[in-house]
Write a structure and sequence with these properties.
This protein has a domain at about 5-185: Jelly Rolls (Sandwich), CATH 2.60.120.260. Helices cover about 10% and strands about 25% of the residues. The protein is built from two helices and 31 strands. Strand 14 and strand 15 form a beta hairpin.
Length: about 475
């Protein structure tokens, strides 16, 4: 038999004189049950109303759950966390002899009682689980010793599928409680049989064991069963589970707040001396400054930049700027295509004088796109490119031209090729014949225009000849020698 369970006889004789000193702190408190019986006055509050003289359904003094359920849960909310000593349960008997012939014994078998600080039993502590009673041995009044702290007391029973229960258990689960009493001290700071002894001063929240007054936890800076000892051995704080920082000369810190009365050793700072020197500082009490380009703080003793440098810097003390076409963290990022291949900015990689041909952006890492090319992508691709949005980003050359155009940038118009044939995309020459009236490799020479040009050349030549003849006559008259035509 579980030693925590002490049976009451049917007449309600108490198990000991001390049990009467504690108060029923569940009386008239808020209660809830999982499956209330519909349209009947058997609500969850019936189990905490202080009445259980008539333990039948018709008496209206018991809470009764609905039929045909696989689980049964009932709970009472004590309103706050209380120290509990024991719990007494009075179950439904229908005022009939309580023995194996009473059908309600089978419903009571297998029950559990939990104490929790939430409405979920699984968050709490199991006080009792029936695994030993039979219909002949289970009492109708049960007192369970449960020296625990909690807000909710939860009664639970189940008859789950695929679980093998003893043969005497009922097929369904019920919560049929005529009264559930929770005995403890109504004032949290008191303990003892008469709830009149104050808990030790250093108990956490003044909560102690309801029987012997031992603390359930200590306030900061104290330890021991009654929290009578100060923290020592380089510890402090709640339950003395915090370690002192680097106090000067390794002295004991304050047992409550961990502060160091005489300052910190090298490499530490703060009133508790638990903080390593922050970025930019080192030495005793962190009063010295690191090199400003250290990343993540320097060595708190030597000042060396052991965690590396800020972006854009290199060297043991991070004193040198990135070079060699690099920038950024650890100088491991490559500069973009800056104008004339100059060094980019050592911190952010921007190009101070813009980008070389074919690139754009502050760091000159983005190739020209969207129909642009040249320095900083300022030039627009020719609209005569067959794909005007994708010319060569450096030169602006087109991969192909629209019909009727040629040249690297498709800016030259084709001649009069026979049948409107497309000319060569680079040279502009026609692969076949020219349209009537035109000639030449590019079919740009007009036959009519050539005839006129020839006539103009002949006239020009005749004028030159006549002018020569005239000049020659004049020279003979003057006695000079004429030159050849």
């Amino acid at each position: 038999m579980d030693s925590r369970v002490v049976l009451f006889c049917f007449l309600g004789i108490l198990i000991g004189n001390t049990a009467t000193a504690y108060e029923n702190i569940a009386l008239n408190k808020s209660a809830w049950q999982q499956y209330p019986y519909p349209r009947r006055p058997w609500g969850a509050d019936k189990a905490v109303d202080g009445r259980y003289s008539d333990r039948s359904a018709v008496g209206g003094q018991c809470t009764i759950s609905d039929n045909s359920q696989k689980t049964a849960t009932w709970r009472v909310d004590l309103g706050d966390v209380h120290r509990i000593h024991h719990i007494t349960i009075y179950t439904r008997t229908d005022n009939l002899p309580w023995d194996a012939s009473n059908g309600y014994t089978a419903r009571f078998l297998g029950f559990s009682v939990y104490v929790s600080n939430s409405t979920n039993k699984d968050d709490g502590i199991l006080c009792f689980k029936d695994t030993m009673y039979t219909r002949s041995t289970i009492p109708n009044n049960v007192t369970i010793e449960c020296v625990k702290n909690g807000r909710y007391v939860i009664y639970y029973n189940d008859r789950l599928p695929l679980v093998l229960y003893p043969e005497e258990y009922s097929y369904y689960s019920f919560s049929e409680l005529c009264e559930l009493e929770v005995y403890g001290c109504p004032i949290p700071e008191l303990y003892g049989e008469n709830c009149n002894i104050p808990c030790p001063q250093n108990c956490q929240e003044r909560h102690c064991n309801i029987v012997d007054g031992t603390c359930l936890g200590c306030v900061e800076g104290y330890r021991g069963s009654r929290c009578e000892k100060k923290c020592d051995n380089n510890s402090y704080g709640l339950e003395c589970n915090l370690t002192c920082g680097n106090c000067s000369n390794r002295e004991q810190c304050d047992h409550v707040n961990g502060s160091c009365p005489h300052g910190c050793d090298k490499g530490a700072q703060g009133d508790k001396c638990r903080e390593a020197c922050p970025f930019g500082r080192h030495g005793k009490n962190c009063v010295e400054f690191c090199t400003q380009n250290c990343r993540g703080g320097c060595n708190r003793f030597t000042g060396a930049c052991e965690s590396g440098c800020n972006p854009g810097w290199k060297g043991k003390f991070c004193e040198n700027e990135c070079d060699g076409n690099t920038f950024g963290l650890n100088c491991n990022q490559k500069c973009g295509v800056c104008l004339n291949k100059e060094q980019c900015h050592h911190l952010n990689g921007t190009c101070p004088n813009g980008c070389d041909r074919g690139y754009q952006g502050t760091s000159c890492t983005q190739a020209c796109q969207g129909g642009r090319y040249g320095y900083n992508c300022q030039d627009m691709c020719s609209i005569n490119c067959k794909d005007p949005m994708n010319c060569d980003p450096v030169s602006g050359h087109c991969s192909a031209c629209f019909h009727g155009w040629y040249g690297r940038e498709c800016k030259e118009r084709c001649g009069y090729c026979r049948g409107n044939e497309q000319c060569h995309h680079v040279t502009g020459s026609c692969s076949g014949l020219c349209e009537p009236g035109y000639s030449g490799d590019q079919c740009l020479d007009s036959v009519f225009s050539q005839h006129i040009a020839n006539q103009r050349a002949m006239i020009k030549l005749m004028r030159k000849f006549l002018a020569f003849k005239l000049r020659r006559g004049q020279m003979r008259e003057n006695g000079t020698s004429p030159t050849d035509f």
